[in-house]
Design a protein that fits this description.
With about 525 residues, the chain is of the alpha/beta class. Helix content is about 50%, strand content about 10%.
Length: about 525
């Protein structure tokens, strides 16, 4: 552990850089509360999504890195802002009319349109916890409704009341003139309707701990700011959580930079130190536009997990969080293969190299062995040439290529075969475009066909690759990648493809000869 800790102090991986920055916070003394608090936030007006996963996964990576650097206990709090009022009816839920009747109620008082929980907020909270549990995250769940009603925020809410003018001085410049005229950091929960009201604060009584506001029917009402009778507007609420709970570390997207900057000022105005923050870049769709839940563009978590493993998603989230990423279907094969390449490299690496390996962070320092004896890209190409509708078709080839492998002994490979078949049928098959070879290409393909037909050696990928190279050189392809482009376009109907010698070894020498024959004869049924 001492050696690992010493290496971690110098490690360049971004979770260690973040952890060292956080550790400086406690150079003079450990946290008074006895632990370092990491927080992630969730707005349960919608279902958990890939951004929720990214934030919890990345925060967990920093937390684990921090635990490697020191012995200070840590906690991860996943906080649900479920006391917020329902401002609009989500388009992806049933019982829309019923939901419309519950507009402006706290999410934990909105009737559950799915009929499985007491409220919509509780339904989504349950979905969040099931979502987090599925990935094995170590966390504590927190409900804003429970915290407000139990008085967990009362002391800081009284401080907000006392420092109301200072809070307003920070907030008002960030608002438009119309909003400035009616803004209050306090949102009273109407004792008449239960609605979370966005109304001005007419009077404040610090001694009694109350505010006065006007109901929509004109009645002036006095309510305590404690005990769940009010909640805060979301920006002051975010800062209030930091102050009340002593949050030490939190991440947020680039789009929330102005809100986070306000939050830092607000937290200090409340008399507490703000947390260390990490701003991460946003995910983009295939056109480079920001991913939006309302637009439904980009790639959802469920879609990723249809075509690739959870670990590959964690690996993708690890990579350069401060760099914007295209999150579209075409990034999945690369992420799958890179993840397993890193797993396969890990056993031979020294201690320092392991700390720099993404899989150390993906798996909390204990990455498993990879059983991918065939790459995901190769599985996709095998699915293509075999027109596979089921992974059992791929196993027919894989058993010959790797006799020691089976679904039972290589469960990761078996799962990948299933992912590859689904990915091929949904994304590769509709876009395959074969072309006929020109005269020089046809001659080279015929030469390769004859060499493979006469092949008497073992199906060694490197030997077969050397033979493919030799054919390309013999027929004057310069650069040689033009020869491989010919193989991919003419034989596989793709713009790029696998290391061809390895593909021949997996698919079979005789099967490749037959594929070349079909292409040269123009009789490949897949061209239809």
């Amino acid at each position: 552990m001492d050696e690992t800790r010493a290496l971690a102090m110098e490690a360049k991986a971004w979770p260690f850089e973040e952890a060292r920055r956080l550790l400086k916070r406690f150079e003079k003394a450990p946290p008074a509360k006895g632990y370092v608090l990491f927080e992630t936030g969730y707005g349960p007006s919608g279902l958990p999504h890939i951004g929720t996963f990214a934030e919890v996964a990345r925060t967990t990576m920093v937390r684990h890195a921090f635990g490697t650097l020191c012995d200070i206990p840590t906690k991860l709090l996943c906080f649900s802002d479920d006391m917020d009022g329902l401002r609009k009816v989500p388009s992806n839920v049933p019982n829309q009319a019923q939901m419309a009747e519950d507009l402006n109620l706290p999410l934990t008082r909105v009737r559950d349109p799915f009929g499985t929980h007491e409220s919509f907020g509780q339904h989504n909270n349950a979905r969040l916890m099931a979502f987090l549990d599925r990935f094995g995250f170590d966390y504590e769940f927190a409900s804003a409704t429970d915290y407000y009603r139990a008085g967990r925020f009362d002391a800081i809410l009284m401080r907000v009341l006392e420092r109301y003018d200072a809070i307003m001085e920070i907030m008002l410049p960030s608002l438009g003139s119309e909003r400035q005229a009616t803004y209050s950091p306090f949102l009273p929960v109407s004792p008449k309707t239960g609605h979370v009201l966005q109304v001005p604060t007419l009077e404040r009584n610090v001694a009694r701990g109350t505010i006065v506001y006007q109901e929509p029917d004109g009645e002036r009402v006095e309510v305590p700011v404690t005990g769940g009778h009010v909640k805060l507007q979301w920006k002051p609420d975010w800062a209030m959580r930091w102050a009340a709970l002593g949050v030490d570390y939190e991440m947020h997207g680039k789009d929330l930079i102005p809100s986070a900057e306000l939050g830092v000022k607000l937290c200090r105005a409340m008399g507490e130190a703000p947390p260390d923050l990490l701003t991460y870049e946003l995910f983009l769709d295939e056109h480079g536009q920001k991913i939006s839940k309302s637009k439904g563009n980009g790639l959802s978590m469920e879609e990723w997990l249809t075509y690739a493993s959870p670990e590959s998603l964690s690996y993708f989230m690890y990579l350069k969080p401060k760099t914007a990423k295209r999150l579209h279907f075409d990034v999945i094969p690369k992420a799958m293969d890179e993840y397993h390449q890193q797993l396969q490299a890990y056993p031979a690496q020294d201690a320092g190299q392991r700390l720099a390996n993404p899989v150390w962070h993906v798996h909390g320092g204990e990455p498993p062995a990879s059983d991918m004896v065939v790459s995901f890209a190769m599985l996709l190409n095998l699915a293509a040439v075999a027109s596979a509708e089921d992974k059992s078709v791929l196993w027919g080839f894989m058993r010959r290529y790797a006799p020691e492998a089976s679904p039972e002994t290589h469960p990761g490979l078996d799962a990948a075969a299933g992912y590859a078949v689904r990915y091929y049928n949904d994304f590769v098959k509709p876009t395959r475009r074969f072309r006929a070879p020109d005269a020089r290409e046809a001659a080279a393909l015929a030469d390769l066909r004859e060499r493979l037909a006469a092949w008497e050696g073992s199906a060694d990928p490197e030997a077969l690759q050397a033979e493919v190279y030799a054919v390309g050189k013999a027929h004057g392809f310069e650069p040689l990648r033009d020869w491989f482009r010919c193989l991919y376009q003419v034989l596989l109907g793709a713009e790029q493809g696998p290391r061809f010698g390895g593909f021949v070894a997996l698919y079979g020498v005789n099967e490749t000869v037959a594929m070349i024959d079909a292409a040269l004869a123009g009789a490949d049924a897949r061209r239809a």
